[in-house]
Amino acid sequence: MGHHYAVLGAGRQGTAAGFDMARFGDADGVWMADVDADLASASAARINGLTGTNLAHAATLDASDTKAVADFLRDTQIDAFLSAVPYFFNLDLSRAAIDAGAGMTDLGGNSDIVLSQLELSEEAVRAGVSITPDCGQVPGMGTSLVLYAMEQLDQAQDVFMWDCGLPQEPEPPWNYRLTFNIEGLTNEYFGDCLFLRDGKLTGIPALTELEVLDFPEPIGTLEGFTTSGGFTTAARTFEGKLRTLQNKTLRYPGNFDYLKVMERLGLLGLEPVTVDGQSVVPRHLLHTLWDPQIRATPDTRDFILIRILATGTKDGRPHEVHVDLVHSYDDQLGFTAMEQATGWHAAIMTEAIAMGRVPAGAVPVESALSGGDFVAEAERRGFHVELKVHPA
Q1: Which among 122, 236, 306, 348 counts the fewest CB atoms within 10 Å?
Q2: How far apart are the first and last CA of the chain?
């Protein structure tokens, strides 16, 4: 007997996740739920067309209606579901998951909400439910690859990560294309990043610590800087075990300066201001003006890059571990690299919950599935993870 899955939010990342569940999740059914009935129907139809099955079904559902969500999960006997809606719904959806007895993952990215979800762990255990927040590309896949790098050492000490999702052909002035909800993007540019520095949890402001890195062509030179939400749980999990844990987001040169202008103008802020007698949230104004300029088009071809450097000891000697993943747009399936990385990582974790591989409770990514197990699943899906281990 197979599993019943649901995806709340039938957009780009959600559709990629639903496809993976139908293909790899031993599924009896995958419900694509969205407040937009047409979007849900289109998503289910696309999944069925790509898989040659009738496993995907459409449902109309408002993620803000917690009771309706819990009823839906019970009525459809969902084993595990993915929240692919904006991050601010995830705490209430976690409560709905516990109420309905369904496992849950989400695309996370907001530290405060993720920490509140983890506080529900005892309730989840009593309900026999597994909840794993912060899945996706980063946070998510990056954390799984950090774990994989650490597993190559007897004792890891310092771990650094750099990552991005970028268009293969950058177009000025932004040299960036957005393939997910803009709420998730601007959330990364605001607040503090939770890192480990000298073994201690340390808050580092987003949009700081700029550095320049060179990658093999055709990627070339990129700039790296801090963004929030990448290591919310991992930094806490590895406190006292690592000396350093940090990540930086990569962009084409010049992007950082644009973002700093937005920050200095207050356009990332969430406190309303008065404009011509009207109350306006600066970030919402930014979304309205900026999203149309950076939104990916059907012609956008992108790539994702995750690079991990871990140092420590192996066999009594200092060693370095290098993990690199570069993945591109899939012309056959029509999924962007970001859709694959985000949706498929979340699907892998959701499927692991449905199959009983994740313990009950609110379980962070780094405690839900080993790095080696994740890499094995990733390679089944066409990701190539390059690993190098050598004496330092």
Answers
A1: 122
A2: 50
- What is the pLDDT confidence band of residue 1, given thresholds at 50, 70 and 90? confident
User: Are the beta carbons of 180 and 12 closer than 8 angstroms?
Assistant: yes
pLDDT computed for residue 240 by the predictor: 94
Taking the alpha carbons of 259, 265, 269, 273 in that order, is the dihedral positive or negative? negative
Nearest to 27 by CA among 61, 51, 10: 51
Domains contained in the chain, CATH given: 3-136+340-376 (3.40.50.720), 138-337+382-391 (3.30.360.10)
What are the tokens at 168? 């293969």
pLDDT-wise least confident of 103-112, 285-294, 319-328, 358-367: 103-112
Q: Say how far apart CA 265 and CA 255 lie, in whole Å.
A: 16
Q: Residue 51: pLDDT above 80?
A: yes
Q: Which amino acid is residue 300, in one-letter code?
A: T
Q: Please state, as a whole number, how many other Cβ atoms lie within 10 Å of the Cβ of residue 119.
A: 11
Pairing of strands 361-362, 200-205: unpaired
* Full DSSP string of 250-318: EE-TTHHHHHHHHHHHTTT--S-EEETTEEE-HHHHHHHHHHHHHBPPTT--EEEEEEEEEEEEETTEE
CB 97 within 8 A of CB 129: yes
Q: Regarding beta strands 244-251 and 220-225, do their DSSP bridges make them parallel or antiparallel, or are they unpaired?
A: antiparallel
**Cα within 13 Å of Cα(158), Cβ side:** 9
CB 22 within 8 A of CB 30: yes
Distance CA 248, CA 208 (A): 10
Confidence at residue 180, expressed as pLDDT on a 0 to 100 scale:
85
SS3 of 24-73: HCCEEEEEEEECCHHHHHHHHHHHHHHHCCCCEEEEECCCCCHHHHHHHH
pLDDT tens-digit map of 222-270: 999 999 988 989 999 999 999 999 999 999 999 999 999 999 999 999 9
Q: How far apart are CA 272 and CA 81, in angstroms?
A: 34
Residue 303 has pLDDT above 90, yes or no: yes
Instruction: State the Cα–Cα distance between residues 238 and 150, nearest whole angstrom.
Output: 11
Collapse the DSSP code of 384 into the 3-class scheme (helix H, G, I; strand E, B; otherwise coil) and give the result: coil
